[in-house]
Specification:
This protein is an alpha/beta fold and 452 residues long. The chain has helices spanning 6-13, 56-59, 86-100, 114-125, 143-148, 169-177, 192-195, 198-206, 225-229, 281-296, 301-309, 335-347, 368-380, 395-404, 416-426, 444-451, and strands at residues 4-5, 16-19, 25-26, 28-30, 40-42, 65-68, 80-82, 105-109, 131-133, 157-161, 181-184, 217-221, 238-242, 249-257, 260-267, 270-276, 317-321, 324-329, 354-358, 386-390, 409-413, 432-436. A hairpin with a 2-residue loop joins strand 14 (249-257) and strand 15. The relative contact order is 0.09.
């Protein structure tokens, strides 16, 4: 943070200073008492298991200040600011600080692909600007304020990811970051356990419009059925990107060559040949969003093309390990992202086997077995030769895949360690291995072990 004091904290939150100097300088905010410095504001969050107010004494041992919702009296040099709710106060501080900065910000949300799309948009914008973007996976009610803490006056444009798991959270995040442009990548079934239906998820994602200014615009995935279904809900100007003929930003002639994806970008009468340094049709869709944003902010087309040709995100890392190749996508999983990654595996050019190492997709609610069956049926229609799984729900993959392809080689394992030991002996020269499951299934243990 720049040029922030306790006075600014009081203005942002409407809080009460219990003790300390109101001119005290604040350089950072933190929810971690072990990361406190002399000019850091500690925000004690009340969680399900721990009330972080108990850490205030240790947090302030090296100086700094704190918010509190549990103190009515305090003494000493360290500023204590009393607020009704520390989490809401942190969000108010982040919103106040963002409003001190004049840079435009692009907000990105969606059930699948928002991280890759955000990274791709940022990479394209770096062809012209100094870009501020989401740090790691900090896209939540807590994470977005912590990301904005690192915003500086040197940043020229921002790209922030907006995640949600419950109703109303996208509007809250929009009120924090005040995006000038919103991007909705798609609407799937992630968090359907909490949201109840895809329709509810779609309306929540489209609520990104609530944070836009009067001249704001939405860029929407025109190939998503839910977005199309609820397009009348959108009250702000919007543009479609995708493969449908009516999309303003469209891709044609998609093919893969030498580990890259090539396509023709179409915008009005403009046609450009694009080389994308990642695989998969879904990444072409992500690239269309990035190109649309790049053009809106006047990044030259040649710079856009150069940036896309050098892009490599944190998802679906393709790593050559000795004689075989790993497609490491163990971070998260949903039916849509599973199918996208399996398509990459199926189309991968190799003389070896195409091996899918999969685990359960979590947080899909009571219909979770059906979603796993859907993915299993899809596996049976691909060129995947081997399917190895962990997790109870993943057994549905095998049962459904066998119905479509009885020659598919399958095996279920009781643990990641058992699976890893098997793969170390099983893999041969030319094999390609996709490793994918929800983060809670910890398949990253398998990919890390194989990479060693």
């Amino acid at each position: 943070m720049e040029n922030m004091t306790i006075n600014d904290i009081l203005t942002a939150t409407g809080g009460t200073l219990l003790c300390g100097d109101p001119s005290f300088k604040i350089d950072h905010i933190s929810t971690n008492s072990m990361e406190m410095g002399p000019n850091t504001l500690f925000v004690p969050i009340i969680g399900e298991r721990v009330d972080a107010h108990v850490f205030i004494p240790s947090a302030l041992k090296n100086g700094g200040a704190c918010l509190t919702q549990e103190h009515n009296h305090a003494e000493g040099n360290a500023p204590y600011v009393k607020v009704p709710d520390t989490l809401k106060a942190m969000q108010q501080i982040a919103s106040y600080y963002r409003n001190k900065m004049s840079l435009p910000i692009i907000g990105v949300t969606g059930s699948v692909g928002k991280t890759t799309t955000r990274e791709m948009i940022a990479h394209v914008l770096k062809g012209k600007y100094q870009v501020f973007e989401t740090i790691g996976n900090q896209n939540s009610q807590v994470g977005v304020p912590l990301t904005l803490d690192h915003l500086t006056s040197k940043d020229e444009i921002g790209v922030l990811e907006m995640g949600m798991s419950e109703k109303g959270q996208i509007t809250i995040l929009g009120n924090i970051i005040h995006p000038n442009v919103g991007v909705v990548t798609n609407v799937g079934v992630s968090h359907i356990e909490m949201m109840g239906s895809r329709d509810n998820i779609c309306l929540e994602k489209l609520d990104i419009q609530n944070g836009l200014p009067e001249d704001g615009v939405l860029f929407l995935n025109g190939d998503n059925d839910m977005i199309r279904k609820h397009i009348d809900y959108v009250k702000k100007p919007y543009e479609f990107y995708g493969f449908a003929k009516d999309c303003t930003y469209r891709a044609e002639k998609i093919h893969e060559k030498d580990g890259q994806t090539l396509f023709q970008f179409c915008y009005g009468k403009q046609k450009e040949d694009i080389t994308l340094n990642v695989l998969g049709k879904h990444n072409v869709s992500n690239a269309l969003a990035a190109i649309a944003i790049g053009l809106r902010y006047h990044v030259p087309m040649e710079a856009i093309k150069k940036q896309l040709s050098t892009f490599s995100g944190q998802r679906q890392n393709i790593v050559n390990v000795g004689d075989f190749t790993i497609i490491d996508d163990a971070y998260n999983a949903s039916p849509d992202s599973m199918k996208a990654s399996l398509s990459i595996l199926s189309d991968f050019k190799t003389r070896g086997r195409k091996i899918a190492v999969l685990s359960d997709m979590l947080e899909l609610g009571p219909d979770s077995p059906s979603y796993h069956k859907e993915v299993g049926k899809f596996i049976g229609s691909t060129k995947v030769t081997d399917l190895f799984i962990t997790g109870e729900l993943s057994k549905e993959y095998i049962q459904e895949a066998w119905k479509e392809n009885p020659s598919l080689h399958t095996r279920a394992f009781d643990s990641n360690s058992e699976l890893t030991a098997f793969l170390k002996d099983y893999l041969k020269k030319g094999d390609v291995v996709l490793i994918k499951g929800s983060n809670g299934m910890k398949l990253s243990e398998v990919s890390k072990a194989l990479m060693k």
